[in-house]
Structures are given as C-alpha cells and as structure tokens.
Amino acid sequence: MLDICKKLSKMNISDISNIIIFAGGNDVSNGQPISFIKDVIFKTVQSIQEQEQTNYEIFICKISPRRDVDVRNFNSMLEDLSSKLPVKVIDC
After folding, report:
1. Residue ranges of the domains in the chain?
2. Which pLDDT tens digit goes with each residue over 31-83?
3. Could you give phi then psi for residue 59, rounded to 5 degrees?
4. DSSP state, residue 84
5. What's the CA angle centered on 87, arms 81 and 7, to 5 degrees?
6. SUPFAM superfamilies, from UniProt (predicted)?
7. Predicted model pTM
8. What b/e readout covers 49-72, taking b as 16+ CB neighbours within 10 angstroms?
C-alpha cells in the first residue's frame, strides 16, 4: 500500500475517470496491523483527492479469501472506511 500511495502522489491523474485500488493482501499476509493499513489507505485516498482532477471515482477491492490469512477483519475495515471516505467497495 505504501508503494501505491507514493506512485499515485507522483502521477498525473487528470485524464483518469476511475481509480481502482486492489491492494492489502500481501500486507495482511505479512502481518501488518490492520490499523496501519487503514491509515495508509486513508492517506492514499487523500493524496488522490489533493490532485486537481475531480471527475473520478475511487474504488477499493476487498481481498478475496486466502489460504495463508483470514481477511475478514481487513474486509470489514474497508467497509467501515468506505463510510468515511468518498470510495466505493468492490466485493471480489
């Protein structure tokens, strides 16, 4: 997620109408605390909003079930976060 946040902050997104973030699986699998991932997602969305382009929608994909980690808490966090940010959640 940090890599995505850094790349988005440097990109010109003026001609983009939809931004789909499909991330977090490796972070959850590597044991990153959900609160940390939540903060990074929040900062990522904020950095997108700071860009001049305003005609886009932001989507965040839930993590599909994995064998190595239970993703339910992460996906619940995304649902909660979507009520606080201008994002839509895609249930993969």
Report:
1. 2-90
2. 999 999 889 888 888 878 777 666 788 999 999 999 999 999 999 999 998 99
3. -120, 140
4. T
5. 95
6. SGNH hydrolase
7. 0.80
8. eeeeeeebebebbbbeeeeebebe
